[in-house]
């Protein structure tokens, strides 16, 4: 099969790899119909995530068609179309029973540090991801979610991570009616967090980024205010000026360790790797939120330490919540929002690229070229399926 192949930082290519096979009676094999490049994939691409091994296939956002199942699989059969949450989970451990699917204790040998994630290095279990023609899906009775007939595949693929993560970012902020919410990052997660903040009762939503086309996009898509941090001397002071010197009620970090905006943080966190990524946005969020406010973190950082102003957290009485999204918990509500027209996820897709051109797709997305917001990869086998389906209609 054709698959994305990681060759080292800033080096990926499309290569032929062996087709995945059933390794456990609970497995399924899924033919990928859509996969995405996520902002989190850029942390791998930039060499920021430990134990990302040469030959690994990325891709934790994918949907597809079941082509084979193990003998113990009861809920799926060949031909079913499914969206696959980015987290692998068993459904029965202490954490899964509490719907903390991103913290499953049985799917990752490094479970004390992270849950399991498709295509996200061996710190997250070492499972190959969906930027390929086929993917092995373990615990197929638990994770995959049947795609409703009335749900567009482009909406479905964004339900595997980007939309639930943005939604959970807003949920973890514990937004109350009329709250001012500041979101750092105008990528897909930040865009969906901004849109979700309105659904949860926000009275004011402000998004911070440095890329003008992304700010214009989120301003239009989520009807929010925007700030270019390159035009601001002091981020915390600026947010306080915008909020009558109180600070925001809720701040959301939708950036993580690849954040720009501080030479010192970039040097220690991204170049020298003395921290688990640049903690620029963590500082901004902690210092911009009001006393007694909430900070929600969904941006990706490494498993080691970051230098953060913990004294400010204590003195201001802040609540900090962070986690990988428990995708499956959110799906019924998010599908309802899509059906009712309150959310239209596929509108953020700006690029559809053949899997054969995955190296160019990563370069465009990473370098923020061509007004790229969200990239969908289409494998050749998926194009063949679409061609057959189209011919059957005539």
UniProtKB/TrEMBL annotation:
Pfam families linked: ADH_N, ADH_zinc_N
Keyword Metal-binding (UniProt): yes
Domain Alcohol dehydrogenase-like C-terminal: 188-265
CDD domains found in the cross-reference section: FDH_like_1 (cd08283)
Keyword field: Metal-binding, Oxidoreductase, Zinc
Domain called Alcohol dehydrogenase-like N-terminal: residue spans: 25-146
Membrane-spanning parts: none
Cofactor: Zn(2+)
Matching PANTHER family: DEHYDROGENASE, ZINC-CONTAINING, PUTATIVE (AFU_ORTHOLOGUE AFUA_2G02810)-RELATED, ZINC-TYPE ALCOHOL DEHYDROGENASE-LIKE
Family: Belongs to the zinc-containing alcohol dehydrogenase family.
Protein name (Swiss-Prot/TrEMBL): Glutathione-dependent formaldehyde dehydrogenase
Top-level taxonomy: Bacteria, Pseudomonadati, Pseudomonadota, Betaproteobacteria, Burkholderiales
